[in-house]
Amino acid sequence: MSDQNPVFIPGPTNIPDRLLSAMHVQTRDHRAPDFVETFAPVLEDTKKVFATTTGKVITFPSSGTGGWEAAVTNTLSPGDKVLVARYGMFSHRWIDLCQRHGLDVQIIECPWGSGAPVDRFESALAADTGHEIKAVLVTHNETATGVKSDIAGVRSAMNAASHPALLMVDCVSSLASMDFQMDTWQVDIAVSGSQKGFMLATGMAILCVSPKALAAMETAKLPRIFFDFRDMMKANASGGFPYTPPLQLIYGMRESLKMLFEEGLDNVYARHFRLAEGVRRAVDAWGLKLVAQSPDLYSDTVSAIYVPEGFDSNALTAHAFDAYGVSFGIGLGEMNGKAFRIGHLGSLTDVMVLSGLATIEMAMADLDYPVKLGSGVAAAQEYFRTSRAPAAKAAA
Amino acid sequence: MSDQNPVFIPGPTNIPDRLLSAMHVQTRDHRAPDFVETFAPVLEDTKKVFATTTGKVITFPSSGTGGWEAAVTNTLSPGDKVLVARYGMFSHRWIDLCQRHGLDVQIIECPWGSGAPVDRFESALAADTGHEIKAVLVTHNETATGVKSDIAGVRSAMNAASHPALLMVDCVSSLASMDFQMDTWQVDIAVSGSQKGFMLATGMAILCVSPKALAAMETAKLPRIFFDFRDMMKANASGGFPYTPPLQLIYGMRESLKMLFEEGLDNVYARHFRLAEGVRRAVDAWGLKLVAQSPDLYSDTVSAIYVPEGFDSNALTAHAFDAYGVSFGIGLGEMNGKAFRIGHLGSLTDVMVLSGLATIEMAMADLDYPVKLGSGVAAAQEYFRTSRAPAAKAAA
Amino acid sequence: MSDQNPVFIPGPTNIPDRLLSAMHVQTRDHRAPDFVETFAPVLEDTKKVFATTTGKVITFPSSGTGGWEAAVTNTLSPGDKVLVARYGMFSHRWIDLCQRHGLDVQIIECPWGSGAPVDRFESALAADTGHEIKAVLVTHNETATGVKSDIAGVRSAMNAASHPALLMVDCVSSLASMDFQMDTWQVDIAVSGSQKGFMLATGMAILCVSPKALAAMETAKLPRIFFDFRDMMKANASGGFPYTPPLQLIYGMRESLKMLFEEGLDNVYARHFRLAEGVRRAVDAWGLKLVAQSPDLYSDTVSAIYVPEGFDSNALTAHAFDAYGVSFGIGLGEMNGKAFRIGHLGSLTDVMVLSGLATIEMAMADLDYPVKLGSGVAAAQEYFRTSRAPAAKAAA
Amino acid sequence: MSDQNPVFIPGPTNIPDRLLSAMHVQTRDHRAPDFVETFAPVLEDTKKVFATTTGKVITFPSSGTGGWEAAVTNTLSPGDKVLVARYGMFSHRWIDLCQRHGLDVQIIECPWGSGAPVDRFESALAADTGHEIKAVLVTHNETATGVKSDIAGVRSAMNAASHPALLMVDCVSSLASMDFQMDTWQVDIAVSGSQKGFMLATGMAILCVSPKALAAMETAKLPRIFFDFRDMMKANASGGFPYTPPLQLIYGMRESLKMLFEEGLDNVYARHFRLAEGVRRAVDAWGLKLVAQSPDLYSDTVSAIYVPEGFDSNALTAHAFDAYGVSFGIGLGEMNGKAFRIGHLGSLTDVMVLSGLATIEMAMADLDYPVKLGSGVAAAQEYFRTSRAPAAKAAA
Fold first, then answer.
1. Tell me: the pLDDT tens digits for C72-100?
2. Any CB–CB contact under 8 A between D11 and chain A?
3. pTM score, whole prediction
4. C291, C146 in Cβ contact below 8 A?
5. Which domains are delineated in chain D?
6. Is the complex ipTM more than 0.90?
7. Which terminal CB of chain B, N or C, has fewer other CB atoms within 10 Å?
8. CA neighbours within 13 Å on the CB side: how many for D12?
């Protein structure tokens, strides 16, 4: 009887009832006029979430990984060089994808817990006087370590080196939860998905593509059919899809955008910061450490937390699930066994976060962690109650 | 964005997704054979929850109040004397209903916070040598004060006085959450509803009627049509309803019974006790007092908690709702302003309860209650983690 | 695998997906401010459907029968005389209800298939010089016979006799499907329900009460508690309910009203007329006869159709259900075995109606009725295609 | 108000309420043990629908097109020769996909309306003595023309030529609706999707892969990452997914399989034949012709129907949608303007089919087709009523 507990994995996120209902729709004809009327505004409104006026939103029925594949295959050719920094599981997986597509991947190895190494990017780009590097790939929010990278900084580094490479950004676990500025940061391709900040079911990759990236498409030779931008854009232009569209997700997306705009994107970001900060206060109260190396790197959507020496983070997350029916993120890759993660993105409230903190405290106590019951909860409570929006406070 | 927070009102309760889906059914023909096949087992299985083999389950599309009206009008005649103790809002409202139906209500006034006064019932019944008292009306779980009454004790009192009155019990907020023994306690009419322990939408009164009460029906002269037992039983016998049945609730009831039996009724009761006990530990840690006067009276479905002298419980519940989006029960009747209530019945987990405790702690802190943040949560955590079922513990 | 077939019973009606979703809502606190904000506009908007500005809308968690009981018990006293015409099962059941409440029912017996006998009403009222008749009860749409009565005519008769009796109208199966004019017809109490024209689940009686009827309430002595207008109005005034409200139905009602207003009430009525007329064309093509005696009596929400001499209508409806999984209305009361009914109200389209006609044709053929396959369908098709709204035609 | 009308497009199909509810599930942790317990049996049970014991079921969050891409990229290398016959839009699109992946496609051009040319396949394979052809690609059910191909025949041709090529079959619009025999026909890769016979939302490609195809995977050099069989199988083996799984569809799939097995696969196929045959009787009664050239080619899931000379099929489908709110399939590719399609697969009943036939009749009449109203309906009615299963008849 635990189906009402929230999940604290960093996606897929808790789905609000309103969005579950929005996706609960009977089949309609995707070739009929009313589909066009539904879909076109969804694409248009999604641009606001990417903060772009010049970019093009393209979706595919797939996951974020499919989105990466689309980004790479539509703009690059076999043998092309790309520059990537590896500082977590997801940056690692993107590297792997590039390599398997026959790209020449120049990897900057960074410690897990660090973010995009702006200076080293700048050096590498400056050194590439022949402009062999065709794209710089950056993970905005490394879900494995709870690290947010400085995309504006990466863009500055590229500009400083006057480098024409494309800037591709994985914002799967940041978009619609943390500030993202496609146009200001001059991002060329941003890749996200339906199951994180959009609070929907998994199943739709959501990309935004700059005019520059669209131009690159014309000469790109990597094969792509299912993920072909041109096929999709051509079909979208007449209101359709090159194959059967994921209708339920599109209706869900329409409602998700409404929810985000009703709350206000800035309020959405502020809420994520507050919830994240509450978690960080709890971590501090427990005497534990975040994997993220410094406050400027702290992610507002997921916190990766080292367990104390001598403890196994896998045992902790397994116990929290078995004993209390609550899912937390396990440690991935290098962090396996060493850290657990608390996802705090999407449809979430102070109250839900506190229930997660209370649960993991119990689980830690059960496994003899040196953690005082209620300590993390109290720290988060104190922060939550004092940081409430003035408006809400006045209403009290 | 708080639609995922649980409610902590003592009903209607949080509806599990499984039951929301079970009630999400298209219209079917209630005069067709498959309705019969659905409805008859629901009535039969509901008897198990009342713990009866001889009673008859009767439902009406209405609320618990409608159930009371049905109980009274089907078995009594104008001017009949009934014996009731008043110790809370719901016992009070039942008295009012009887008086407005022209019954002669003999009231035993008791302090709020106490339960059914077994001894005084016995005296009153013993004094009624002419057996003018036709029914004894008892509220099993007084939702306004969080008090559980001793129905077995009332039955003993009746037997000690060799009194033939009917025993009618309001178990609206106890059935399917706390142990109820229709047959063992020789209850004649038990009245409940769909929106508490059954975890469904509001809209169905659920009664169980003994053969003795059915016999009384033959001479009862209070008018009833919509709530007529005979019309309903006659229609039910051929699989129907005397008017349009609440189909969605009946399908929901079928699934609710499945859930209860899957968990096991004894486990359901044990879970409610654990959750209630966790709340009580928190209350104690806060230095607050329950309205219920002694441990034997503690309800496992709702706790009414006095706020400290000088504080207004209405301000507290209003603030918890405005600031944190969480509903708690207000103080009702005599308790208005003096006590708030935490409902802990229906579909609820340790984790959900902790989120409620954490919330009310913040609200109390905001309003300068002398309560330490995290203190109640920690007390409940400690209890929850040490009282988990051995089986679950082994699995960890 | 027939759960996608529509039902053709005269209520509960097919529930549009949009309304199923609107009722699929988690528990919220009915004592919290947002319930008030939801419920008050629902009551206000429902007045538009009754076409009243002076009436008061009152709802109860129950069925239409509960609504009748509320109408009678809130305005009359034991022994009061009421005038009713009996011309079908539902007018009969209302009479029975009055008698069981100890009213003195003056019955005008009419043949089934006829409607409210305006002239005989006038005579009876004129004869009642002492104004002993306190209320005239009329069934606007007799669901058993598919007969619509002339409420404006009844009002004229009352006025002609200068009779001060209350006019109570059962519009359960007509409201929100056929034109209803509370104010123009000076109806004092109109009784309807959630499961017909409002296309919702069963479970809410919906009444509209005139100021005159509210005044009568002050002296009415029939007992009522669950169905008490004053308790309900008092609670409603502060946004609440005297007991737990049927939250899901109230949210459903809000969406139902939106749907009705989006289509436009006049368009809703026109659609019902078209669908009904299509059915009548089919009946004519089959060589069968309606129970309703003349075109001015034809109901636009349900058609009762005589089977040919020597056939059993129960066998027909049973066969349609068993063989094709489609529910039609059985013949009720005097019509049992002699007539079957096609409900054509609520959420219904030309296309759905044609599927019902095609089905019953097959069932009739299977049972050797002298009916040509496709004949009724063709007659309805011809009517539907030529009577489409010009706007829709232009768009084609 | 037409949201209750069925669709008659050949997929996505009408979703039964039961499956909509099964997909209406809150996020659960896909890395938690209960996901494993859900997913493994789904893969296992899906094998029964493919009629295989040796094949491996592999799913991807995508559409059927993604499934094709997976089939090709996991087993072939750039420059590999494949043999395909083109006889419709979907065989054409598969050819295009192969060419864009750099395969050497040997195309057998066939008239639209014909099926897989078994003899010409045999000749081509016999001629390929060097076994350069690595795969034969066949569309089992060509959705554009309503043509079913003889896969057993193709297998015989391959065997007759003793050719070792892989046999890949597109069964997107046939699986779970028409008989499919993976093992008996020695199919190496079968490609389907969630939104046709499985009656679910679009979003999951469902493949079945033979051991021989799995072996080919080891040497295949076409790049694939998102669609990589090995990544998926490895993750599946431990109960997981290489990326976020489409949880809702997996729960839907579990329920869909239950529904199919409850009805019995043979009964499902028989039902589809009956419904298709009813449509064909109507087409005949209208004096129209199917695109499919001969009865052995008739598809049981979709009928493509030529409009008479001088009429435009696009105007017909557009009118049916605009005037009656019903979607039919448009003519695709060569058939655009010349033929319309009636999809009759998935969750469908006699009654629903009749509503579609009645609708298109009206639309044809509106556009002055030489078609008699009711004629097609009557032909289908006659067939439906006489071909009902004896059991159902006996029950009548």
1. 999 999 999 999 999 999 999 999 999 99
2. yes
3. 0.96
4. yes
5. 17-261 (3.40.640.10), 263-390 (3.90.1150.10)
6. yes
7. C
8. 27
